[in-house]
Amino acid sequence: MKKVVAGIDVGGTFTKFGIVDREGKVYADDSISTDAHMDIEGYLDQLAGSIRKLLEESGEKVELQGIGVGAPNSNYYSGSIEYAPNLNWKGVIPFANLLGSRFSVPIAITNDANAAALGEMIYGSARNMKNFIVITLGTGLGSGIVVNGEVVYGHDGFAGELGHVIVHEDGRHCGCGRKGCLETYVSATGIKRTVYELLARRTEESELRKIPFDKLTAKNISKAADRGDRIALKAFDVTGRILGKSLADVVALFSPEAIFLLGGLAKAGDHIFKPAKAYMEKNLFNVFRDKVKILPSGLTKANAAVLGAAGLICKEILD
Amino acid sequence: MKKVVAGIDVGGTFTKFGIVDREGKVYADDSISTDAHMDIEGYLDQLAGSIRKLLEESGEKVELQGIGVGAPNSNYYSGSIEYAPNLNWKGVIPFANLLGSRFSVPIAITNDANAAALGEMIYGSARNMKNFIVITLGTGLGSGIVVNGEVVYGHDGFAGELGHVIVHEDGRHCGCGRKGCLETYVSATGIKRTVYELLARRTEESELRKIPFDKLTAKNISKAADRGDRIALKAFDVTGRILGKSLADVVALFSPEAIFLLGGLAKAGDHIFKPAKAYMEKNLFNVFRDKVKILPSGLTKANAAVLGAAGLICKEILD
Fold it and tell me: What gap in Å lies between CA B160 and CA B312, rounded to an integer?
C-alpha cells in the first residue's frame, strides 16, 4: 500500500489537483472549474468526487494520508479562505473544515506562495535549506518565507506579504487601497505599468507601442527584450532595480541562503534575474555580500503548484 | 542545590554579568572593564575569575548550568565575535570557545538585540508570545526577531539587521559605508542628526540651539520636548514617522504580536511611542491594522542586558 497525499491548487479559474507520494511522484492529476461554482458546497462535492476517482485510478494500491491546499487569501491557522477578491465565495470560508467533512485525513491550507515554498523544500531545489524565500511574480507579488525550516505564518497567519511593503511614498495605486506597494512595480502587472510609463516619458521606437495595455503581458515584454527593444530592456532594468533593492532589505532581516523567483515574470530569465542580482548586491549590507543565491524554481513541471500544496501536508505529517 | 546560569553583557566600555536562575532572580552581579584589556586572554581570565567569585558569594549553594553572552557583532552559529568596530580585539574572536576552556558548561553567544529578545521571552513581557520583535534604539538600531518561538539567526547567523534596511536612497551616511540606513534616522544618534537638520532648516527658537552636537543626547531632546520645545517635538515626529513606516513594512513580513522598543531613545516614552504607533497604523496593510502592539520592555531593571544574555542560555538548556 503506497502512502500518498492529495495536493490541491485553487486558482481563480481552475482548481488543479493530484495524487502525490513523498518523493514527489504524481500518480494521477486532474482539474475542475473554480469559477463555475457559485456555491462552495457544490464545488467541494465535485472536488471530493474527482479526488476519490483519482485515488481509484492511481494504478497501484494507494492510501491517502492527508490533503494540502494552496488557495488565495487563506489562513494556515484557521484553515479558512478569508475575503478572497478573486473567488466567488465571499466572506470567511472554513475551507479545511468543509473539505474535512468529506475526508477523514488531516487537511492543511495556505496561500500559493507559502505552498510554493513548501514545494521547493520538500520536492524542489530547497531540499537542504533551512532559511530561504520564494517570491512569486504573477499578477501580484507573493512571498513564502522559511526560517529555521518552518514557513513564517506570524501571529495571525498572514505573514510574508512582501508584495505590500511600500517602496515609493505616494507611488502607484495598489489593489490593497494604499500606494507604492512593491507589487505595483515588481510583478507581471507591475512591469506592464513600467512599460507604459516609459512609453509616455521616452521617444524611442518600440514594438510595444503597438500593443494596448490590456493585451500587454510579461511574455510580450520579454520577447521584445530578446529582440533588443530598448523600452523593454529598460523596463526590465527598472523592475530589477526596484526588486534588487527590496531583496537587499529582505536579506538584512532574514539572511536567507537563497531567494527563488517564480511565476510569469520570472520566466523572462536573465532579463529579470541579472538586474535583480546586480542591484541586490549593490545595495547589500557588507556582511551579506556574495552570499545569497537568486535561483529559479526547481519544480519546472506544470504541476508545481499542486506539488507545493502536497508539500504543505507532507511537511505536517513528517513533523 | 539551586540551578543557575551566568549572563554576560559585553559592552564597549564595561562588561556586566550576573548569576541568574530560571525565574530571573539575580543572585549576584558585578562588572569589569572591557576596554582596559587589549588582550582577550587577560580579559577572559579576569571575567572567569569574577564569575567564580560571584558563584561562591551567591548565598545559597548554586550549580552553574550554562553561560549566555550578549556581545556586539557576535555570531550565534560560530560562537565568535567578528570584526567588532567598538572592541579592542580585532578580527574573528572565538569568544565562546575561549570562555568554554575556562568553564565546563554550555556557552552561547549572540548580539545584544537578540539577547534582549530572549530576555523578554524568558523573563519579560513576551513570555507568552511566539512571534515578536525587539528593537533597540541606542547608538544604532538593533533588532531581535522571534518567529515560531525561535530567534531568527538566518543562514549565516547575522539576520535581524533592521537598522541597515535602506529608507532613503542616497540618504545620510552610515557607519556601514552605505547611505540612508534606518539607523541613521531612527536611533539616539539619528534623532540628534534630525535635530541638527531641523535647526539648519527652520527658524524657531529652541533650547537645543545652545547644545553642541557632541553634547546633544536623546535625553536632552526628550527633556526639551517635555518643555514644549518645537524643534524637539518636530524631531520626535520626524523620527516616529520614519520608524512607523518601517514598522509597517516589518509587520507585513513577520506579522508579529508585538514590537518592543528599548534603549536610550525609547526612554523618551510617548514622545517616540505615540508617533511610531500612529504612523505604523497609517501605513499598515489592511489585514494587520489595530492588531500589533508597540510596547516598552518588561525588564525595567538596570540589568536587563544581563538577563537577556542569561535568557539566551536558558533557552538553549530548556530546549
Answer: 16
Task: Grade residue B319 by pLDDT with cuts at 50, 70 and 90.
Answer: low
CA distance A112 to chain B (A): 16
Q: Which CATH class is domain A2-123+301-318?
A: alpha beta
Helix B230-254 vs helix B218-226: angle between axes, to the nearest 10 degrees?
120
Fold match between A2-123+301-318 and A132-296?
Answer: yes
Residue ranges of domains in chain B = 2-123+301-318, 132-296
| pTM metric for this prediction | 0.92
Q: Which residues contact A290 (CB under 8 A, 6 or more apart)?
A: A281
Q: How many CB pairs under 8 A join A and B?
A: 126
* Across B69-81, average pLDDT: 94
Exposed (0-12), middle (13-18) or buried (19+): which is A181, by Cβ within 10 Å? Answer: buried
Which residues of chain A make contact with B130, given a CB cutoff of 8 A?
155
- Which are the contacts of B165, defined by CB distance < 8 A and separation ≥ 6? A249, A252, A253, B181, B182, B246, B249
Q: Is B150 on the interface with A (CB under 8 A)?
A: yes
CB contact under 8 A, A291 and B155: yes
The answer to whether A315 touches A122, Cβ cutoff 8 Å, is yes
Q: Say if the Cβ atoms of B287 and A245 lie within 8 Å.
A: no
A154 φψ region: left (φ > 0), alpha (ψ -120 to 50), beta (else): left
**Is B27 a residue whose pLDDT tops 80?**
yes
Position B302 pLDDT exceeds 70: no
What confidence tens digit (pLDDT) does each residue in B169-206 have?
999 999 889 999 999 999 999 999 999 999 999 999 99
Q: What percent of chain B has pLDDT over 90?
A: 86
Q: Does B78 touch chain A (CB under 8 A)?
A: no
The residue in chain A having the minimum alpha-carbon distance to the alpha carbon of residue B170 is: A283
Given a contact cutoff of 8 angstroms between Cβ atoms, the answer to whether B180 and B166 are in contact is: yes
Residue ranges of chain A with pLDDT lower than 70? 59, 301-302, 319
Residue A37 near chain B (CB below 8 Å): no
Is ipTM > 0.95 here?
no
- CATH topology for the B132-296 domain: Nucleotidyltransferase; domain 5 (3.30.420)
CB contacts of B164 in chain A (<8 Å) are 252, 285
